[in-house]
Each structure stands twice: as C-alpha cells, then as structure tokens.
Specification:
heterotrimer; A alpha/beta (about 260); B mainly alpha (about 290); C mainly alpha (about 260); B: about 290 residues; C: about 260 residues; about 0% strand
Amino acid sequence: MTAYIHGQNVNLTFRPPNRAPVRALQGFDIAVEEGEFLSIVGPSGCGKSTFLSILLGLLKPDSGDIDLHGKPIAGPGTDRAMVFQEFGLLPWRSVAQNIELGLQLKGVAAAPRRQIAQRFIEMVGLRGFESHYPHELSGGMKQRVGLARALATDPDVLLMDEPFAALDAQTRDLMQAELLRIWQEARKTVLFVTHQIDEAIYLSDRVLVMTKRPGRAKKIFTIDLPRPRDYEMRVTPEFNDLKLEIWNALKDEIMG
Amino acid sequence: MTETNQLEVPFVQAAAPPEESAEVTPSGRRGLESFALGLSGIAVLLLLWEAVPYLVTMKAGTRLFFTPPSEVAVTLWNLFSTGVIWSPLGVSAAGFAVGLAIAIAVGLPLGILIGRSETLDALCEPFVTAFNATPRLVFLPIVLLWFGLGLWSKVVIVAFGAFFPLLINTHEGIRNTDKLLINVVRSFGAKEWDIIRLVVVPNALPYIITGLRLAIGRAVLGVVVSEFFGSNEGLGVMMVQAASQYKVNIVFAGMIVFMALSLGMTGLLKMLENRLGRWRPQRIGE
Amino acid sequence: MMEDAVPRPSFVQQNRKLLLGSLSVVAFFIAWQAAFLVVPFNSLFITKPSLMFEALWRLTLSGQLFFDLGASAAPFFWGLGAAVVVGVPLGILMGWRSRVGQALDPLLTALYASPLVALAPLIVIFLGVGPTGKAFIVFVLTVFDFVFNAYAGVRSVDNLLLNVVRSFGGKEKDLYLKVIIPSVIPYIVAGARIGVGRALVGVLIGEFFAASEGVGYGIVKFGNFFALDSMFSYILVITLIAVILTQGIRWAERAAFPWRAGQ
C-alpha cells in the first residue's frame, strides 16, 4: 500500500545565522508511484526545491518520514539524480567529462565510463560536442549535458528542479519535447518542479499544487491526456480546462 | 591592463578574481601604437637620465650618486662576463627557493583547510589579519637572533612574507566556490575529499596562481631586506656594500637583476594564469 | 508572523565568529605564557607575555614609546602625503589622457613590480638617516599604489553613467561631482590601504639602517641589548598600529562607499 516515494508530515525550518528563521515545509505529504511523472507547482519560495533537496539527500528534514522504495532516505545515493536549474556544470570539464562525473564518483573505470557517457551524449543529441567546454555551449545544450549527466548513473528517480526556467521560450518548448522522448525511452520516475502550469500539464501524469510558505500539499490533479503527447495538445479544450483548474488552485496562494 | 590584479581594488582582496580578456594582445594599429608609446616612455626616461650630466652641472658630492644607464649596463655586463655575480646570485636564489617552497607547502593546505572549515577560519582570522597587516620586517631582528646570520634567517623571512598572499588567496578561492557545484557533486555521493579534489581546488586554481604571483614579489622583497640587514653573502649584501663604498653603478645593476628576476617570474605565472583561466583541457581528478 | 514562532538564534550563534576569534587570541597568549612552566625560560632568547606587557607599561610611563612613535610618525605621514600629492594627479592624468597612460604604463608597471626597497641603502646614504631619508623611502614605496589605483579608478568610470547624467541635462561640473569623483575616490582609498602597509615598511627600513630614534630603531636597539621584553612590546605596538590602520581604512571604505561592498 505504501507508494514508491512516500513522504509524510515533512517539516523543515532554515536557520540562517544572523537572520530570522524561515519555515520552508510544514506538514508536507506526498506519494509518488513508480515510473510516474509528477510535477510540483507552487508560488515562489514555497519549498518545492527544498523538498527535492531532501529527496536528493542534501538536506535533512527536522521531522517527518520520507521513504524511497520502502527505505528511509539517509543521504545522497546513486538511485536518485538531479537536474539543476542553473545547470551546475563544472566549467573546467568538457561535456564528456561532465557527463562522466557521477560515474567517476561511483568508481566506474575510465574506459566503460567513456562508453556510457558516449551513449548519453548521443541520446541528448550532443554528438560532436564531446570536448567542448560549458562556456562554449548555449543554455539549451548545457541543460542537455545536465540531463545526460543525471541519466548516466542510471538512477531510479530523476529529480528536476525548474530545469528549463533559465532557457528562452523556444528552447524550452524544444527541451520539453526532448524530455518526453527521453522519458518514454528511459522510463524513470520523475519529480519535476516548475513555475509553469503549461509545462506541468504537458509533461506530467499528475500535478501537485503546493501552498505558499510554509509549503504543504494543497491539491493533486490527474492529467488524463493521452501519450505520446505533442505540441498541438496544448491548444485543446481539455488542456485549457486543466490549466484553468490548476490556476484557480494556485491563484489564492500567489495572491494571498 | 596587465597589472590590475596586483593592485588592490576596493573590496576585492589581494585575491582579485582572475579576469580573462584582461591581457589584450597588441593587435592592429591601436595595439601597436600603445606598444610604441610604452616603449618610448621607457626610452625617454633612459635618455633623459643619460643626458642629465650634460644638461646640469652637479656638485662633486652629488655626482658621486649619479650613474648614467650606459654605465650601469657596462657594470651589468662585467658582473656577468667575469662571473662575479654567480656566487651571490646563487646564495640569494637558494634563500628565495627554499623560503617560497616552505610557504607553498604550508600555505596551500592551510588555505584549503580554513577555506572549508568556518570554525578553523574564525580561530585563525585574528592572526592572519594581524600578521598580514604587519610588515614582516619587524620580526627580522628577532629572527636574526633565533636563526643567526645566513641562509635560515633569510628562509624564514622569505617564507613568512610569501606565506600570507598564498594563504589568503587560496582561502578566498576556496570560499568563492559556487555552492551549486558543491551540491552537484555531493548529490552524486561525493565525500569531503572528492569535493576538494573535483570542485574546490580546480575552482581556486586561478586564485592560487594570483597568490603565487604576489608571493613571488613578497619573497624577492624578503631576500632583499634580509640580506640588507642580516646576511654576509648574497646579491643584497653586494648592494649594501657597494652603496657604502659609493659604487652606485653596482647598486643599480643589482636592482636591475632583482627587477628582471621578479618580472620574469611573474610574467611566466601570468602566462600560466591565462592558460588555466580559459579552462583549456586540464587533467583534473584523473 | 509564522516566523516568530521559531526560536531566534542565541547570542553565541550570532557572534560565533567573533567569539571564536577572541578565544583563539586569548588562548594564544595563555599558551605562550604557560609554555614556560614546562620549558626552561631563557630571557636572552625569548620573552613571555607578562614581561612583554610589563615592558610596554614601563615604556609608556617613561614616555619613551611616545617619543619613538612621534619620531616614526613624522616621516610616515610626510612620505605618504607626498605620495598622494604626486601619485593621484599622475594616475588621474594617465587615466584621462589615454596616450599619457599608454606611454607611462609599462615603465611604471616595471618599477612597481620591482623590489624598490633595494634603493633604500642609496637613499639613506644620499639623504641621511634623519626624517628626510625615511620620508623619501616611504614616498618611493607608496607612490605607485596611488598612481595605479587612481589610474584604475578613472578608467573604471562607466561611460554609460556619463551619458545618463548628460542626457538628464548635466553640466561638466555635474559629471565630475556625480560620476567621476565618486568613482575614483574609492580606488584612492583602497590605494591608501595598501600604501599604509608599505609606508610602515619604508619607515622600518630607514630606521633599521641607521637612526637614533623611532620604533624601528628601538626594536634593533633592544635586540642588541637582549632586552627582549621591550623588543616584543614594540613589535606588538607596530602590529596593533598596522591592524588598526588597515582595518580602519577597510571599515571606513565600507561605511563611506556601501555601494561598492557588493563588488
């Protein structure tokens, strides 16, 4: 009966030195099925990124339980990988070396490492750019590297923290389509944090709306649109109805 | 321009973040013009200096202190062609090299340590601030008392002077690491040692080289002052002795040797800095 | 507010850095003093904090300390003052007239990067060991700090800002008052911060060579007499002065030019 990822009554307060403490999450509950694509939307600063960091194992909640596959999360692990909003590529490493990072830390030897990296370079369409440095890439290409790096360690869960927020609108549309294609292929469980309702509906099986800080789960929407999805789907009445519903749930949190 | 990293710009510690594109290669007419102007600036000074005795009459006493560049050049040539300079130069170089090596061996690891640990940083900070602000020269008499005349006093003074720019710049470079990058490698299960090896040190490398450049300047200074006051051989000793015998040409010749050495070494480092700063292929973490 | 429900960080948490720093300084002096309970104490070779502070008290009461400080202060300020008077206009000229800048930059850069201290013996012999010689050494060591910082300050003036002020109908006077001077002054103050350290070196060098008064002379003299307690008390005084001067300027920079603090 427990879900693949199960969080119950998660609380976390930040206590920065010399400043007032900030309650990021309070009584946050979540349940994600295996292989599901779940998006989390919510007002700025509602703790959605904080929750991803907890799942990733970088932050520890003050209280509450989070289980992955029935086991509590006790720090970072190779079963999860994150795609970061600001890419987080090491500027002194080439594309290939950046993609190899997780494998290197996992202790994979140099030769197989290179092979695996090459496979993911091709998957995200960066063939020919293996030895480029991050500063030579466009934003969209950087995030392709970020995605390939996360997938290269073959995690069960892919965490994506507003991965396309730093990209321009066209690149964003393109990357969303790419992500759907890759997800179809790799079939990971995905937790996707975003500001954009459109993006959330287009990509997800379910969309979770959070309250403003301190963040709790407010409402969950199931997206019954058929897959594979394409761009035209975004102008259908069904899509727009969903968008309006979600917006109505979100509105009070943003305005209030 | 080339030296902006050497001077402290407000709030930018001696560890001015390495600016790329700072080094404008003289290209095109503008670059050439600027190069010619710079060269003529130096030439005009040398010519004026050479011409002074013909333009103004000096008292015999003043004359004693005046040496035209041509004479300094001849002196330099003689010093090298007769080989007189090699022995004092070797002594100075040994003090420089050993002192700088000690400063690097202690300053780099300690800089990494206090850059990574806020507690250690807070504990060390008063001493770093105090010793960095204080001219190392005040410790010279006590160092001479403890280590005697000769190599080891010099090594201590040189190491002490070179240590702080290295420490401070390394510390600064470590602290300036993007937290995001640290989180990225941590998310892949990196331990503290991996963080240092894969993120923190590569990030600090340009700062460390800037620190090294400043350290070289301080080390040369350390050689000069320790030889002025507490040594019986070396280039600095040769200069003080020459000064007391009014051999001004030798003082200037020594000065030029010191100048050439520090410019040469800082120039080499500047090249290294530019190369590494571009994130050209580096073998990190292999 | 929700935030208020959470306990605020305690005093110790808020001032952790300051407390740890003070703690380590106190611990340092205690350890130094305590070391001689274990190790035999040789007053010809080392002193202990109690004796050092005693000597400091003695030299303060006798007026010796202030006499020496005064003797060192005069060339310090004269040399530094001369460096400002010569260096700042030269730097501004170099920044303003780009040809002058290009002509002088390599020459001055070479001089700045070279160990100018090496000229000290010559200066001492030429100008003597009195205040003039010391002031001149200070001048030579610090003038480039002001030249290069003023130079950098003028070049840092943002053309965009000049145009903004012009577009609002600003006159030449406004350009200077509202853009150029506010841009250059922080650089000059930063130059002073480095210059102060070098000026101390200049004074000490002059007094080490040959002098009959001054803090540097005191250190050498006490060393020759093996009066290590007095010697260390003078070293402590110079350390304090150096820290107060550089940190004081740093603090003044932050207070006076808060808009630069983020850079």
